[in-house]
Structures are given as structure tokens and as C-alpha cells.
């Protein structure tokens, strides 16, 4: 088959336009979109159900969350929902608060987030909260009750 493939590539008359089929992977796309009533829910569902590659659609109005499972690209789903419904749509910006080191730090905690969720922040300043410097460790252990060589002033 190698020789036949080579010859077919040489005598190809398609004008150099080869269509490469990329295999899309099954993805779960979570979108934050405000859903006020059953009419909004129906409108959002219909905007996504007609897309090629969508296998299931789940809507959670209390969390203002749309979950789409299928062989789709997240950016295309968000843009289609925003265009068809006329509502502001964005990828789901929240993670469970168990995942974050400091869920109540400034910039992570969000009052508008659903219960049990905080913002997913990849800010390097937030990672400083997780690590204490060696100077801080020395001062905190100097006055600790568990340290036998602690300061006797206390």
C-alpha cells in the first residue's frame, strides 16, 4: 500500500486542498450564564442542542450553570450560546473550595459564587499565602508553646 499511496499523492487532482480530519475528544464544557425563568432555560437548551457533536445538555438554573457534553470546542459553544440567546456567557470560573489552599483570600472568595465554590485564580500573588518565609517561621516558632527552646518572656 505504500507505493499506491505515494502514486496517489503524486497524481492528486484536488488542487492541493487536502482535508485533514482532526479527531475531536469528548469534552465537558461548563458555562456560566444567567437563567431567570423556564423560558430562558428553554432558549439556552435550544441554542446548544442543535450543535454538531453535542451528546447531552444539562442546565442548573440555581447555579446559573450550563453543562454541555460532546465532541465540541469550548470557545465555539460559548460564542454560540452568547449569540443565540443574547446573554452574557463565559466559561465556568469556579472550583470547589476544597481544591483551593486559601478559599477566603482576597480575589478568590466571590459572594456571587454558588455555595461550596470559589473563583479559580491562577495568580502568583495568591500562592504566596500558602508559603511562609523562613523569617516568618523563625518568629512564629520562637514564641510557640510546642518549642522547648522558646522564649521564656511569655
Description of the molecule:
This protein is flat. The protein is α+β, with helices and mostly antiparallel strands. The protein has helices spanning 2-10, 38-49, 74-85, 124-130, 134-142, and strands at residues 27-33, 54-60, 65-70, 89-91, 94-96, 117-119. Strand 2 (54-60) and strand 3 (65-70) form a beta hairpin. The protein contains 5 helices and 6 strands.
Sum this structure up briefly:
The protein is of the alpha+beta class. It is built from 5 helices and 6 strands, in the order αβαββαβββαα. Helices cover 32% and strands 19% of the residues.
Classification by helices and strands = alpha+beta
- Helix coverage percent: 25-40%
Poorly predicted segments: none
Instruction: Please give the radius of gyration in angstroms.
Output: 26 Å
- Report, as a whole number of angstroms, the end-to-end distance: 85 Å
Shape: flat
Sheet-strand content, in percent, reads 15-25%
Spatial order of the strands forming the largest sheet: 2-3-1-4
Figure out the total of helices. Answer: 5
- Biggest pleated-sheet summary: 4 strands, antiparallel
**How many runs of DSSP E, i.e. beta strands?**
6
What's the mean pLDDT score?
78
Helices and strands, in N-to-C order? HEHEEHEEEHH
